[in-house]
Description:
By secondary structure, the protein is an alpha/beta fold. It is built from 16 helices and 25 strands. The strands form four sheets. Strands 8, 15, 16, 17, 18, 19, 20, 21 and 22 form a nine-stranded mixed β-sheet that branches. The protein has a six-stranded mixed β-sheet with strand order 3-2-7-23-24-25, with no helix packed on it. It is globular, with a radius of gyration of 23 Å. The structure holds zinc ion (ZN). Zinc ion binds near residues 61, 63, 220 and 435.
Amino acid sequence: MILSNGRIYTIDARDRIVDTLVVRDGRVAFAGRRRDVNPTPGEPEIDLGGRAVLPGLVDAHGHLMHLARLRLTLDVAGLPSEAACAERVAARAANASKGQWIAGRGWDQNRWPGALFPARASLDRAAPDHPVSLVRIDGHAIWANSAALRAAGIDRHTPDPPGGRLERDARGKPTGVLIDTAQELVRRVEPRPGTAQMEEAVLSAIADCLAVGLTGVHEMGADLDALAAYRQLVTAGGFPFRNHVALKGADPAAWQRALEEGPAVFGDGRLVVGAVKLMADGALGSRGAAMHAPYCDDPANRGLLLLPPDELEDRARAAAGRGFQVCVHAIGDRANTLVLDALEAVLRGRSSATGGRLAPVPGMDPRHRVEHAQILAEPDIPRFQTLGVLPSMQPTHCTSDMPWADARLGVDRLPGAYAWRSLLRTGTVIAGGSDFPVELPNPFHGIHAAITRRPLAGPDPGWQPEQRMTRGEAVRAFTAWNAYAAHRESELGTLEPGKWADLVVCSADVFECAEMDIATIAPVLTMIAGEVVLDRRV
Ligand SMILES: [Zn+2]
């Protein structure tokens, strides 16, 4: 197949722009000028009409499983108050048989008047006869009603588990909000969806991703149910997407599978189980991110470590020893220091031949990752480059958090917050993502946020504008750098001969259009391995 008359950004090392691609056997066979192509007889040709083409956009930190499960649960994202969430629950309860579990996701008290955590009372009134569990938008807290707490066996005598906390009222009674590892108490008694239901939901989630221009995701924490659904779809030839899976280390079954079976590749590399995801701390929104100094707006709180540092190191070493890339969630500056310490120790262990000195081992290039790397202490910034550990960052987290991040962090910590430019200056690359469904999966929102560091609407708050990325860097963060962050740079990430023909024909040119229009760019035609997976040409 020939794709001609385009403005095709190859994103290769020389930033070459060509007008024609030839795709054969799912791969790019040629990238250059139309007049240099000798079509084989009958070879189809698509006239791109001068449109811009990018390599397939990949989200380096998304949760396909959660996006799929959202289909099967109640969506309470974007609602303006606790009462509005409770109302939605009441409406669902009215149509659900008594005792049926109502699970949902998406609340965010930072959007509500007063910004206070909700409590079980409002859900008890909304659904007295149904257990209700609503996950916070960031996945770091569950808001449950009394029936769900009862089902989970939670009462005033339940202690806070390590790495977690039960919010309690003045009398010590749990309010229904469970932070970080405390969520597991409810999670383990929630009913799980059936396989066929899950497969359908996965396809619907993939359709959402394709609709905004993605061709793949690095899924940061999949469990075995999700993996089974993906494998089933890949085997049946019905998985129009790429997924670089990090198994969810916090899930005992997934962790065991990782250590027993090691990395695995399915289909034509559409599904790769190549990483494990570990969690070092919580999130900034729920003040669970582990900080060196207390929160400015909660002086008794320095956040939560979800794993003791030595256990984090042991787990990282075990997974790395099995051949996995290790991806560790770290948001607070203290969590980032500890994760870098742990990964440094693991990497050092690998090069014991050099007497413990950190040195590259031939053939060893694990490219471990810190997911979020959100708030960094200044001395930690160059360590990513030195260690070969990649920061995997979500530009839209910055633009979503900037209205309240100052209050949590205070001015002293802002220079290390979402510090894209400071990191790039050290010579590292940044893997770009969205953390969907925490944010929308739209990669053009991420590219817009990276370039402008301002919200989609409203005035520019001028929040450390010196940390912005260039357009070329932002596009690379979602293409070539993501491919590198998944060890796939020889096959993906640029439109060079020999690589998979994963590409997106765009409604507008991200390099040429006005900044404010970047976020509205949409895919017109998308291919994965040369196969058309989305076609909106009229
Ligand atoms: Zn995440």
